[in-house]
Amino acid sequence: MKNLIYIAILSGQLCSAQNWFPHSAVPLPEKRWDVGIFQPFRFGVSEKLEYSLHPLLFFVMPNLSIKLSHKDVGSWSTASRHGFFYPTPLLNMLTHEDKFGVISPEFDPIPRLLGLYSDWLMTGSLSPSTYLTIKTGLSAGISFGYLDERSSIDLPLVYHRLGVFYNKWALRLGVDLTGQIAKKLRFLVDGDAHVLPGFDGDLSLEHKGVLIWDKSEHFRLICGYKFVWGRFPFGTQARILPYIPMIETWVPFIDLQWTGTRI
Predict the structure, then answer these.
(1) For the chain, first and last CA: distance in Å?
(2) Cβ pair 230, 203 in contact under 8 A
(3) Across-strand partners of 83?
(4) Residue among 239, 24, 259 at smallest CA distance from 134
(5) pLDDT category of residue 262 using cuts at 50, 70 and 90
(6) DSSP bridge pairs for 53
(7) Domain segments of the chain: what residues?
(8) Cys bridge to 31: 79, 125, 259, 262, which one at CB 3.0-4.6 A?
(9) φ, ψ for residue 4, nearest 5 deg
(10) What is the C-alpha to C-alpha distance for residues 57 and 217, in angstroms, rounded to an integer?
(11) Are 160 and 201 in contact (CB under 8 A)?
């Protein structure tokens, strides 16, 4: 079940191969779409608007985000991203006693929770095929009922993202670098911070590295890893993900992505 949670969080962490990858300030071109097994479905509505959602998670954690392009600042493209997620159905699925349970049944049911976030994105070109993106944003967590802090899931990636519902707000900071290695091979490296000011376990620092192989115009293979260091109520912890507890080892994260244009 821990692997299910990691996949749920990692599902938005890998990227497509162009300067309009998910965390850049450049929306997908109009009528263009892309989707992966573990990645969001994204669609370019117009030159200035893109929307995305995670189809794999939508029925257990409804979610939606939009990206709005704004006026360039010098040579930098700018955009804002706004979204929501509703994790209550997924958390209630994880609230039971057996081996698949992650949250104690004494906290059943989890109250209705609504996560909101807004980010500001700036993307600049360092070379014809290399792009740098700077990200900053705020998150808010709304609980429509009493949420006991003991119900937190103390796992890397998960604790600090869901911590917004206990702390009520969080700060997000990050930088992404993507570029071309060969004709059909690209890379992405990034660094992100999730800050919960005043919370017990207030900081998570994350880094990922990704290789993207463009087999064709409509299909690509993505392979990568995620490193997480965080402060938790029990102390600090660092881990490379995905991590398989049964064999006590790390394995590469692999995803397949399809892309195309709506006629």
Answers:
(1) 40
(2) yes
(3) 65, 117
(4) 24
(5) confident
(6) 41
(7) 2-261
(8) 262
(9) -60, -40
(10) 26
(11) yes
Q: Coil, strand or helix: which one is 174?
A: strand
Looking at residue 23, its pLDDT comes to: 82
For residue 78, the cross-strand partners are 70, 122
Angstrom CA distances, 71 to 75, 137, 202, 213, stand at 10, 18, 34, 32
Q: Is the pLDDT of residue 246 over 70?
A: no
Q: Which amino acid is at 263?
A: I
Rounded Cα distance, 86 and 115, in Å: 6
d(Cα 97, Cα 106) in Å, to the nearest integer?
9
Give residue 14's pLDDT.
Answer: 47
* Positions of E strands within 90-234: 113-127, 130-143, 169-182, 185-195, 203-214, 219-232
- Looking at 1.20.1740, 1.10.10, 2.60.40, 2.40.230, the CATH number of the domain 2-261 comes to 2.40.230
Residue 93, burial from CB neighbour count under 10 angstroms (0-12, 13-18, 19+)? middle
Query: What token pair was written down for 22?
Result: 């998910």
In DSSP terms, which residues pair with 135 in a beta bridge? 121, 174
Say if residues 111 and 145 touch (Cβ distance below 8 Å). yes
CA-only gyration radius of the chain, Å = 18
Tokens representing 112? 């209705």
Single-letter residue type at 245 = P
Tokens of 46: 């117009």
SS3 call for 44: strand
Tokens of 43: 């669609």
In the predicted model, is pLDDT for residue 197 greater than 60? yes
Highest mean pLDDT (candidates 77-81, 107-111, 242-246): 77-81
The H or E element spanning position 261 is strand 253-261
